[in-house]
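Field reference: sequence -> structure
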Amino acid sequence: MSSVATGVWISLAIYFILMIAIGVYAYFKQQNDVEGYMLGGRQLSPAVAALSAGASDMSGWLILGLPGYMYASGIVSLWIAGGLTLGAFVNYLLVAPRLRVFTEIADNALTLPDYFSNRFNDTSHLLRIMSAVVIIVFFTVYTAASLVGGGKLFESSLGMSYDLGIWLTAGVVVAYTLFGGFLAVSLTDFVQGVIMLVAMLLVPIVAFSEIGGLSAGIEVARSVNPELFNIMSGVTVMGAISLAAWGLGYFGQPHIIVRFMAIRSVKDVPTARNIGMSWMIVSLIGALMVGLSGVAYIHNHNMELADPETIFLVFSQLLFHPLISGFLLAAILAAIMSTISSQLLVASSSLTRDIYKLFLDKDASEARQVLVGRICVVAVALLAIFIAGNKDSSVLKLVSHAWAGFGAAFGPLVLLSLMWKRMNRNGALAGMIVGALTVIIWVYGGFEINGQPANDAIYSIMPGFLLSAITTVVVSLMTAPPKDFIVERFEEMEQGLK
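Structure field:
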């Protein structure tokens, strides 16, 4: 093995050992009950909650996807970055405090399906079952796609086989998630968020210094392609709005909003918001600067870049000592693993609470539920590994639309359930179904707008979110109002915010 590869592996080994050590620490630290395993006992500090939400949200998209989009398309990528920033801020402002209070009032709901069912007193369990199925199916697929990213990373950067890369990525994540539960996932996400932030600051600073500074880099990039600095390049007004509409997805992402349920106190939410938004804005700017500096660097060195999304990898290999290169590869793994662990835990929690306990063992003890939760972590991971075995699997296309699916199915439901006391079970169920079906039909129905696929013209989350919200309101108003005790719970939630 070369000295370069040895240095990279040393950094990665340190990173893997740290993640597993955190899992062991969390195993002995957490309460050995369902709330402890699935929500960390609702004791997350503001910093851990904020960086955990951010790291599980951004995934490899922050380090690979956004720099690649900036490299290829220019500042039109600001529409996505701006939409995500606004969506995350509103999520912290409206959803976080209300969900933290309401999930405790609603019979101490521990999962999103738990909350939906308890919030509307759904004795039929339809809300719980349908939302659990959506979560389990989409997150299993989502996890598979993240494992594909891990496999390709080891294959392209270290010459390891693709399959071994998948198993190594999954093995480390399962190890700390299996034993440490939500607390381990959140603490590792915190560390991973710090690693990602450092990487997104370090790489563009070094890259711009290599090409003579920020001003020189901008001038070179402008000479290469002036359209990179046209914020409407290649998009219509509706196209720009569609890019910004990514922000709507935040209100319905279970792996993000579960952090709001777990934060220590509603009084900690403003601090978490300030930390989370600062981390997000700095990280997004860093990612955009990686892409922009890449245009100038590749041009100055007469290089060719076949895949724009590899610009971060190129910089990590060319500009840094092997030990630092290993750290930067760990940053990519951190982005991938933080998302995988969150998805594994949310999916296993739904399997345990919303399927196993509801249908198979209604009187399951706390210890039994924790055990089943751990078994489900392994089961979901194995299924995801099987799906990810084919790196060209069409499942990746489905995953690319999962953000829209969750946002349209759950987003209006979460927002309206926290903001409107007249909403009822029928409206919630109808809105969830319409939102999910709209996204599926919009993406796979074969429809066109002005000669291009509907989803290319208008991002599917826009019609999905809008129709879901309208359906929820109309059906709620057309059917019987919620019972008095449900309204009283809502009012108690409002009082708890004061």
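Note: The first strand starts at residue 448 and ends at 449.
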